[in-house]
């Protein structure tokens, strides 16, 4: 499993698969480093390639998410505020961002939440 990192780079958002799983429909997640010095993830190859053409550092496919919710996986929500993108597995946090003016970009597939250690 691979971790997706949040805006602050020290907060993991979710665990995703390093490789596709045979017989399971999966979505690749492309990783870039935005001009705002933030992790930038997208399931859209054309979006990743277009950003890379503008000079945004591009690291390719970082892992894979499940297309459908199986085995306890939850949606990985994505929203936009200006040039920044935000990813979370927390529906309440996603909805709060939308309520404050962020643009809902749907989901990037389904992932496994990272539980904080007590």
Automatic annotation (TrEMBL):
UniProt domain DUF5648: residue ranges: 27-111
Pfam families in alphabetical order: DUF5648
Record protein name field: DUF5648 domain-containing protein
Species the sequence originates in: Hohenbuehelia grisea
Taxonomic lineage from the root: Eukaryota, Fungi, Dikarya, Basidiomycota, Agaricomycotina
């Amino acid at each position: 499993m691979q971790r997706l990192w949040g805006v602050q780079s020290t907060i993991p958002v979710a665990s995703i698969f390093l490789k596709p799983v045979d017989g399971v429909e999966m979505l690749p997640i492309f990783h870039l480093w935005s001009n705002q010095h933030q992790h930038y993830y997208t399931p859209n190859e054309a979006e990743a390639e277009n950003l890379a053409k503008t000079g945004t550092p591009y690291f390719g496919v970082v892992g894979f998410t499940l297309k459908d919710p199986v085995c306890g996986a939850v949606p990985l929500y994505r929203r936009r505020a200006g040039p920044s993108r935000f990813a979370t597995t927390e529906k309440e946090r996603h909805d709060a961002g939308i309520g404050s003016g962020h643009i809902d970009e749907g989901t990037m597939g389904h992932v496994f939440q990272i539980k904080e250690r007590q």
